[in-house]
Write a structure and sequence with these properties.
The chain is an all-alpha fold and about 150 residues long. The chain has helices at about 5-30, 30-40, 45-75, 75-100, 115-149; strands spanning about 105, 110. It has 2 domains: about 1-75; about 75-149. A hairpin with a 5-residue loop joins strand 1 (about 105) and strand 2.
Length: about 150
């Protein structure tokens, strides 16, 4: 059986289970759920929350499997992905080297370490650099389209 077929079967089963949980919740009514929750009884809502977590983790897992399978099946795609990851790591490295860290007191009374502060600043710099690159690439793409016409 192909992996795609297994994914479809599991998706259908999870969908049916989700509908059953939803019908249970809708059949109980909002008032009863609120009364139960005020007494600390979440037994009606908990199963659908857990199902949502399971669906989230399965979605992440299946996406990673299919993405990696697609990458490793084509050496050209793997090469391009490796270069992109390399550039991303280079941007992170440069941002970390440029950033400075200062011990910072936080609202809860704890202190953010110098290294933690440096990572926060590096993350902000990475965001700005990637934002500027994205805007530049969109501008160049639009410019190329305009020049082709």
């Amino acid at each position: 059986m192909k992996l795609q077929n297994i994914v479809n079967i599991v998706s259908a089963l999870l969908g049916i289970i989700g509908v059953i949980f939803l019908l249970r919740i809708m059949g109980t009514g909002d008032e009863q759920i609120e009364i139960d929750a005020s007494q600390g009884n979440y037994s009606l809502v908990t199963p659908i929350i857990e199902l949502a977590r399971i669906v989230l983790f399965l979605t992440i897992f299946v996406t990673l499997i299919f993405s990696l399978r697609g990458l490793f099946s084509n050496k050209e795609k793997l090469k391009k992905a490796s270069i992109s990851i390399g550039f991303f790591l280079l941007i992170i490295f440069i941002s970390y080297m440029v950033s400075t860290g200062v011990e910072t007191p936080m609202k809860d009374g704890k202190i953010l370490s110098e290294n933690g502060s440096r990572w926060v600043e590096a993350g902000i710099l990475v965001f700005y650099i990637l934002f500027i690159i994205a805007i530049g690439l969109m501008f160049l793409s639009g410019l190329r389209k305009m020049l082709k016409k």
